[in-house]
Write a structure and sequence with these properties.
alpha/beta, six-stranded mixed sheet, five-stranded parallel sheet, globular
Length: 369
């Protein structure tokens, strides 16, 4: 709901459009661009006009090529302006993105534009879309909302944090529907976020010594939290957070945290198959895991890593002990044990399995079953 994004661009700027398309698709939006969506045999002009008219947002990529090019791209610009007339003056609808030092067309100059930067522009786009989307969702009756209409929130921190950290912290908030109270889920999410905000404040308080301040003159610590939403039904919601930090050490740190809630019992879902690395090793052996057919070296590396870290799964020596998981859909579960692996091996820490839920507990279904 309110997440359809039309991308208008010149053919010469295809790679920029493709990158933005993939970013939006990975961040809970439904982007549309002709090269990605048109299928053989469609009347392309009719389809483009239809998508333009029904879009919730229109991103216009401006370059020396597109602003000077005659043809259909100019028609897209004009129709975008026409549909903008139907919006409130306060609405965010057209998002111009300058790819180079081109002259912004006069009729588009009334909209604040962004100068393209591979990282910052994506953040600016996501922020603008989410602000407007949240406004729209807040105005509609509860009976028209479903759980997939969750809103993205962005944390804004004040004070000395901004001088020490380059941070980007995002999380979803799920709206109540006529049949589901999402308060417990949202409380679990906010508790997780608040715990990490507290950690940042603690880091700032401890980082006021002269040595740290000197190191931070040229660059900042990096702290980012993003998320993936998996299964969303009237019974369950499953999501996983990804945490990325860089404190100028030997390498950045990565970790994952999952939150899974059952509404019908109003409880946090638990995973019942195994609690330690040794049980995971046995499970993978049972599944006869192979990354690629005959890739024994890769398999041995995986199992050796699990075996090496099993001794540290004791709570006195190793944290976190539990495995993170994401219910991808109503049949498939992603088990993530990357938190238990050394940095160089984290990329082999995720596996998909079939699962079932019984009495609020999740269990892996073996191939034999």
């Amino acid at each position: 709901m309110f997440n359809k994004v039309f991308i208008s661009y010149a053919r010469e700027d295809y790679q920029y459009a493709k990158d933005i398309y993939e970013f939006l698709e990975a961040n809970n939006f439904k982007p549309w661009m002709d090269k990605k969506k048109l299928i053989v045999g469609q009347r392309w002009e009719n389809q483009i006009m239809s998508e333009l008219k029904t879009a919730d947002f229109i991103i216009i990529l401006l370059s020396k090529t597109s602003v000077a090019k005659r043809g259909f791209v100019q028609r897209e610009f004009k129709y975008a302006l026409k549909y903008a007339e139907e919006k409130l003056n306060s609405d965010i609808f057209i998002l111009p993105i300058k790819l180079d030092d081109c002259e912004v067309p006069e009729e588009l100059a009334i909209f604040n534009w962004a100068e393209y930067n591979e990282y910052e522009t994506y953040i600016e786009i996501a922020d603008a879309l989410n602000i407007q989307r949240n406004i729209r969702i807040s105005t509609i009756p509860k009976e028209l909302i479903n759980l997939n209409n969750y809103s993205e929130q962005k944390v804004k921190l004040e004070g000395s944090i901004s001088s020490i950290f380059q941070y980007d912290i995002r999380y979803p908030i799920f709206h109540n529907t006529t049949s589901i109270d999402t308060d417990m889920l949202n409380i679990a999410i906010k508790n997780y976020i608040n715990e990490h905000i507290s950690f940042i404040h603690q880091t700032v308080d401890e980082g006021q010594d002269e040595y740290t301040i000197e190191r931070l003159k040229d660059q900042k610590f990096i702290y980012e939290i993003s998320y993936s939403v998996g299964l969303v039904t009237n019974e369950y919601v499953s999501l996983m957070f990804y945490e990325f930090t860089d404190y100028f050490g030997a390498h950045p740190n990565h970790s994952w945290t999952s939150i899974n809630v059952a509404f019908n019992k109003n409880k946090i879902l638990t995973y019942s198959n195994f609690n330690n690395l040794n049980e995971l090793k046995e499970l993978l052996l049972k599944y006869n895991f192979n990354s690629e057919e005959g890739d024994e070296e890769f398999d041995n590396t995986l199992l050796n890593n699990i075996e090496a870290f099993t001794e540290y799964s004791d709570e006195d020596y190793f944290y976190p002990k539990r495995f993170e998981y994401l219910l991808l859909d109503d049949e498939n579960i992603l088990i993530n044990f990357s938190n238990h692996l050394p940095h160089v091996s984290k990329f082999i820490g995720q596996f998909d399995f079939k699962y079932k839920i019984k009495n609020g507990n999740i269990s892996i279904i073996s191939h034999e079953q």
